[in-house]
Amino acid sequence: MRRIAILVLILLFVYSAAPADVIHLKNGHTIQADSTQQKGDRLEYQVGEDSYAIPMSTVARVESGAGADPAAPSGVTSATATRPEERRGSAARPSMPDASSLFQEITAVESQALRARLIRNGQVDRDALATIERSQNPHFIGVAYDVVAEQAYATGDTDTAERYLRQALSFEPTQAAAAGHYAAMLVGLHRYKEAIAMAEQATRLAPQDAGMWYLLGVAEFTADHTPQAIDAWKRSLAVKPSYRVQQLLARAVREQVIQTDYQSDESAHFTLHYEGGQSSPAMRKALLETLEGEYDDLSNQFGSAPRDNIAVIVYNNRDFTLVTEAPTWSDGMNDGKLRIAMRNMDSLTPQVAGVLKHELTHSFVGQATHDRCPQWLNEGIAQLVQGRTSATYGGLLPVLYRQNKQIPLAMLEGSFGRLSGAAATVAYGESLAAVEIIQSAYGFGDLVRILQRIGSGLSTEQALRATIHSSYSDLDDQLKASFGAR
Description:
486 residues, alpha+beta, SH3 type barrels, Serine Threonine Protein Phosphatase 5, Tetratricopeptide repeat, 4 domains, 5-stranded mixed beta sheet, 3-stranded antiparallel beta sheet, 19 helices
């Protein structure tokens, strides 16, 4: 997990019930210390038997037991310093790279220091957590629960993570990091409406944090609120430039422009967007009925389903390419919304029905893995559910494997979007063949269990070993054998 660089890790929990000094930081937080002493450009302080130091540039003032203010920086007085009740939460968190890892990327300064106390060998130290609770310091208790929530989420225990986050916010309602973590987790769980409300709270608490606005944009966009996503991403860029956010914003703007004249229909689980003059009512009805039938089938196969309505956008080929900038070989995309390219808007062909089921399967895989699924497994399962077989690829795969020119599965964990048409064909073919081997030997239920274990925090190889007792190398060897290669 990546962390921002901090000059000094600060803000550890309190051992003493009656500290001698209170350090007020410029970000609004406080540190309760047994004693303090300024040494040059650093403020040193004692908590119990431990000594710490922070830059004076982060300090607003220090209240000693006698009411003196010996460590107040020049120009800052007790009257002008931020009062504890005005604190708005720390804005010192990194911007977030993508929806699946938002939770891990939001890190307050004090969380880093507390983590060393609370997490031992990957497990929560219950005694340390109890010590913090006994301190009766709401801020540090809230931060502590945020830290243990982060650990629970990292191990895939989302129920425990959610419970801890609620406790964190109950102790410290103005803690922006906890609100951001909660919103990010809800995005990963595809609970977008709830994520929006929590992300809005995070932006109110940390309005100068570009990452919080980015997170709100992700939640709004995946909830099919494109104008609101555009506004959030613009505000994120106003705080801090980001190439990634610029790309997302550009796509959202393209989508909004192209869909200006689109109309919408809804069913129990879908919101369908379409160009009004390009499709008949009968075709749109057929689309929604097909999607609902596939939704029911996939719910039974996976044992769970996305909670919020799924947006489905039907484009002509030109609009699909303009919005998605997808490679020419692509006829569908799932970026939280199902985007389908249709050459003929008059009827629902078997080919389009297959693409619908393929792209919808990605939503179920994302739900099961919290968007952590490797691409080969994701695409392999989607093709399998769609009804394709590796025989579709003709003699391509046997030739590649016999010549030892195949791509190792471990190299197919990332996106296929940048592959050439030929390389993409190989990647999709190998992905399907690997999933067929697992399905044939262990059944679809074990494929779902692999997904669930990835969602619980295991790596792909760990999930494979735990479920089918095979490594990547073993699976590669089985693929070779299946195509008659040695």
